[in-house]
User: Fold this.
Amino acid sequence: MIINSNLKKLSKTYLFTQVTEKVENYKKLNPGVKLINLGVGDYTLPLCDAVVKKLREAVNNLSKKETFRGYGPEEGYLFLRESVKKYYKTKGVDLDTDEIFISDGANSDIGNVLELFSKDNPVLIPDPVYPAYVDANIIHGRKIEYLNATQENNFLPGIPKDEVKSRIIYICSPNNPTGATYNYSQLKAFVDYALETGSVIMFDAAYESFIKDQNLPSSIFSIEGAKKCAIEICSFSKIAGFTGVRCGYTVIPEEMVYEDSNMNKIYKRRLAARFNGVSYISQMGANAVFSREGTEQVNENLDYFRKNAKILSSVFEKKGIFYTGAKNSPYIWFKCPSGMSSWDFFDYLLEKFNIVGTPGVGFGKNGENFFRLSSFGTLEETELATEKLLKL
Amino acid sequence: MIINSNLKKLSKTYLFTQVTEKVENYKKLNPGVKLINLGVGDYTLPLCDAVVKKLREAVNNLSKKETFRGYGPEEGYLFLRESVKKYYKTKGVDLDTDEIFISDGANSDIGNVLELFSKDNPVLIPDPVYPAYVDANIIHGRKIEYLNATQENNFLPGIPKDEVKSRIIYICSPNNPTGATYNYSQLKAFVDYALETGSVIMFDAAYESFIKDQNLPSSIFSIEGAKKCAIEICSFSKIAGFTGVRCGYTVIPEEMVYEDSNMNKIYKRRLAARFNGVSYISQMGANAVFSREGTEQVNENLDYFRKNAKILSSVFEKKGIFYTGAKNSPYIWFKCPSGMSSWDFFDYLLEKFNIVGTPGVGFGKNGENFFRLSSFGTLEETELATEKLLKL
Assistant:
């Protein structure tokens, strides 16, 4: 048996696995110490009432013969695709329900949609960025090129200036980990570049719900021409705390045609063979996010985390430390003090202040000397962490 | 952009999509006609009480701050892996919890585990068989060879007699669509062959819960040596009606080593990058399947379908028509009468008796002139269908 040799090229441990191991080790050596976790981007607030109500209704339906449902459509229930369509309408984007595919989360679909494209396309990935992009492409054996995000470009790199060629271009805006968010003209440059070169943009919009600034696009499809060259991947994790419930959606526009093939139709065919759909219960819960009641409750939660982000960022404002994010993102990305390396600062924060964050270098080489804090903790923890950080 | 040209090699429509389209068309032309659906292998009984109780508890936990859970372990919660381990123990198979990966269903993992192995390994797939195996391998661009299952070998083909080489070998037992089930010595021949040639066996055990006959193995790991060469893929869909809830599990033994690489460890690393785990709610429900209460209730449901299978098979017993399955499987696989083609018989059943079944040829060329009926309908429908079929 010949194994997939690409798997050997993956870094030995995944960033978040590595962080967890370090933390578990620290806990073992320091029993009783209470840690403030501002590391992974995981929710701490419970699901909102509107969602819980619908989850209960779904379980109830499955408990009775008359309302039991087995296999659902692999592309997701129409009721949820209708709601996503309406949500996009509020952003000024017209979608057809056939263009929306319900997924079990952004992470899975980041890799799944790659099956549409040949291994021979080079991939352009911002550095630093969410490590799953790189890993999914390493597993498939694609050649990876990086787009350097640095302090100089405010962690918002522009279109590549090197050789013009067709590639798979990843964009994550608001960015994970930097929180930096592209404006309309910056995204337009990418769409124009993709149209010109026959590239495809993989737009990760997982954090779109954190955008408050009306001058920032929360969907790539707000940009003219994007429907011909972009796939948008989104999730209910960050808008509504679905990290454990698992539901997301991916938009592949009907207008996207490469080599005379309609990518939407091809993806639908792939899905029929490779997926049996997302849990009916999760889809029912996700649908409640778009109800009037759900939207209100979800926004209350988002405001809670936005407040945390503001509190955390005050540290860096006061200290005059360079940072990005916090405004339209749950993340604060900042330069480690005194030129410390990311992992040294991780250890320092853990040992000195009992705060768990995420070392920037874990997201790529340009993340070295940077650090990510998340606003997904509780208000109390965030305030406590802020007090401590002010003593830096 | 170069697209994945393998996608163009997929059959235009997926079997079950094609059946659904034909049925929808018939309904449109014949409004008011009530159809008996013995087509897809989908549950019709509601979830059992023990499962519903745990699903409710899970939703409740997510509704409160103290018990809310976000991201779970990508390999699944330990509580569920412990239960699966105990379940295997009752079959006489010792597993470690680290060898068990919770999935969102067998269908997804049939493709996912393929990422472990190079595209250069040929694949051996029984014909006829569940079409997802073929499609997943076409998408990945593997060379597919077929193992002919025919009336002559009772649809249980033995090890290949041609050139000895290392391959990815699919086995589905009890088989979908034929219901034929391998015995110990037949499976041992496959394990010996795999060990000798360095092949890997992908053992689809989705229907293991239907095995009543103690002389038939319900896990490949009941065969000595299998832990060195087999991956087992299973699901809660058929044991407990999770077709809409989505949960399954995949076993990759620690002993499986190819090219000095531990496949279990490599899969765990892949999973960290590519998956964020199965819904906590679904996992809680799945765990209830293994409780004393759950086991009892699940077995009652299985008996209900077993009875249906027996009733259906009586038609073919009485008429002396060749069939397989029904005994340790929810499917009855039989020869179409009067040498009719599978699709002609599909149309005939639909139009004459208003019964929906699945044409055998949809599962592979050797399925031509054969037909699959499922016992997952209601008792009333099954009895009505039986009456009608006796008039064949």
